[in-house]
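To whoever is covering the structure queue this week,

Two jobs came back overnight. Logging them here so there's a record in the thread.

Job A:
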Amino acid sequence: MFVRAYLRASTREQDASRAKADLEAFAKERRLKIAATYVENESGASLARPELFRLLGDCQPGDILLIEQVDRLSRLNATDWERLKDEIRQRRVRVVALDLPTSHMMMTNQGDDFTARMLDALNGMMLDMLAAIARKDYEDRRRRQAQGIVKAKTEGRYKGRPEDTQRNAAIQKMLKAGQSWSSIIAATGASRSTLSRLAKREGEA
């Protein structure tokens, strides 16, 4: 059995490795060592998370996927959450979250088969509940944000998202150097509309 830690933050400004020490201490208390750590900055509302699926691809049956909180694993809608759960279930990976006490027993010998199945069922139910709460929290925050923007626009206070001047300067250098749009998008995560705007700005300079 290997313990594999998964660390996720929603944006590049957040530090996905912040919880690493907590996960290591948690494993150490149970006399287990984290075999590998997978870190990425992606939204929990998206199923497109390369590091999470690399982790699952590395797992063997019985391995543990260790996370700080359930929302690090999922803020997914119901359909995508079922897809992710199916992937985890097919690989027979056990999910353990620091904020889900019922999952902590999954890191130890679970005794007879009946006890193991009961623990698995209970943990699955609690995991579903916390994933649903995480999704609702995500949707509520998005709704409040949208309402705030509408109000700010109505009052003439909305200025939009601040420009990432450092990233955009780097993109303009790449454009000037003749790099392809595809390679710039892959390197920076910028959208084609952003590149189009910056290319136009570069042409007017």
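Job B:
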Amino acid sequence: MQPISTTFTVMPLTEHSYRSNSLDTYRGIAVGLMILFHFLWNLREFGLLSFDIEGPIWQSFRSIIVFMFVTALGCSSYLAVSQNHARQRFLKNQLKLGMAALFISCGTYLLLPSQWVFFGILQFLFIAGWLLRPIASSPVLTATAGMALVALSLYNNLDAITAHRWFIATFNAPANTIDFINPLPWIGVAMIGPFLGYIKLHKLILPTNTLTSGLSWMGKNALVIYLLHQLILFPIAALISFAVK
């Protein structure tokens, strides 16, 4: 009989060991809502649905999706600094996000030069990632400042139109764009995200089933899904339109 070995092998930490399943699921819900949002938009573009894109229901739907994405960024920023994630990992993620944002800007400029995306969700998340990194280690103070920014922007009516006009005047941005994220109040909302990590919402225990596993997978692959989903949804909407008409 072989003697029992007393030597233990310590497995190195992998990228996945840093992840929070509940945070990935939360982000995955945002991805799912985004897919639904864009599919409904596509159906409207093909004349299969009719609704007011400037109405409160549609704008509230969009705001919920943006809220989830930016607070997820704030929460993950807190986890990164509190768990001493390697700076190289942050830089790698920022590089991927920056390249994706550049791809969206260049792609929309070539396809829709009068409506290209100069400051959409990816561009916003890229900038917010740099801003949050040095302050996420103070979640209470950061969240307090974030709420103050939200209140200030609402009090002074600093809406998306106001910010868009500034971009137009300063950078000669297009008067129309298919995606625009108002720096205020959304940077303030992103600053609330670290507090969600501070109170350990990312440690919520979720039931293990097909739904949560699927949502978690979507959250882990949110960037790839964002880049590819319209390439799938738009042809589907076109086929539906062709079949119906």
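Note for Job B: The radius of gyration is 21 Å.

Please reply-all if you pick these up so we don't duplicate work.
Q.
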